[in-house]
Design a protein that fits this description.
Length: 269
């Protein structure tokens, strides 16, 4: 495990984010991130960037308002949503697989109410500007999303670009799709079936979670393999952006190897 250890507390921190910046892999259908240095060290003695971007890039959190009208935005969500106990589950999946309730039932450690749940399908290792990463990924079934809702978890993260199967999104036959043109004939050739027949609903898993007030994290990455199969503490705060549908975050796992550390009370000495 690659980790940074605080010398005072002994707490260990593990990176679970992909990098963000120029040439970040962009979800098909979205515009490129635009970064421009508007002042330079050599000329002005200071460096400043101008950024034009959507926030559904790299490791990011989606607020309920992303898919649910009049639901909370990222800046409306309480701080405790983005910090607390959770689990990182190893659920390996292959091309176009679905994560089902049975996968969640048998995964360890066991999911508990109010957990932050991270799902490691192995797909973060393929993170790239590629048709494989975006178009061939696994995804949560609607039943699996409802299982998590019923479990009363507070946040769900996946190491894929979409919570849903790509053929249940605009990458496939839904709203403004297919954003990846080859997907539908490729699926028909591989299965003998039409994608719209197998995936008739648009974003059903994502909508189930967000409708229940459970935010989602997409493109979980970093050193996810090293923490999978563990119970852990997680934090990944978005901006206090009151209209925000999504926000790039720095997702970090925190461990206390000694078991002795306690947060300071904040009382005056």
């Amino acid at each position: 495990m690659t980790q940074v250890v605080d010398p005072e507390s002994g707490l260990a921190f593990v990176e679970l984010s992909h990098p963000w910046g120029m040439y970040t892999p962009i979800h098909p259908g979205y515009e490129e991130i635009k970064l421009e240095r508007i002042t330079h060290h050599a000329k002005q003695g200071v460096m400043t960037h101008k950024i034009v971007t959507i926030f559904h890039t790299s490791t990011h959190v989606n607020a309920p308002i992303h898919l649910i009208p009049e639901a909370p935005a990222v800046g409306d969500l309480p701080l405790q949503t983005f910090f607390g106990p959770g689990v990182a589950l190893s659920i390996p999946k292959k091309k176009w697989d679905l994560i089902e309730p049975a996968d969640l039932e048998k995964a360890t450690p066991k999911i508990e109410a109010d957990d932050i749940v991270l799902i490691n399908t192995g797909w973060h290792r393929k993170y790239a500007d590629s048709k494989e990463y975006f178009g061939h990924a696994p995804g949560l079934s609607e039943a699996a999303a409802q299982w998590l809702v019923n479990k009363k978890v507070k946040l769900v993260g996946v190491d894929t670009a979409c919570v849903d199967h790509p053929l249940a999104t605009s990458l496939g036959p839904h709203r403004n799709g297919p954003q990846i043109k080859y997907l539908l004939p490729e699926y028909k050739e591989a299965t003998g079936r039409e994608a719209i027949a197998d995936f008739p609903k648009w974003n059903p898993a994502h909508r189930a979670l967000l409708s229940a007030g459970i935010p989602t994290i997409e493109n979980v990455g970093g050193d996810l393999d090293s923490v999978s199969g563990k119970r852990l503490t997680l934090q990944g705060f978005p901006w206090k952006w009151l209209e925000g549908d999504a926000c790039v975050i720095r997702l970090v796992a925190i461990f206390d190897p000694s078991g002795n550390y306690r947060i300071e009370s904040g009382a005056a000495s």
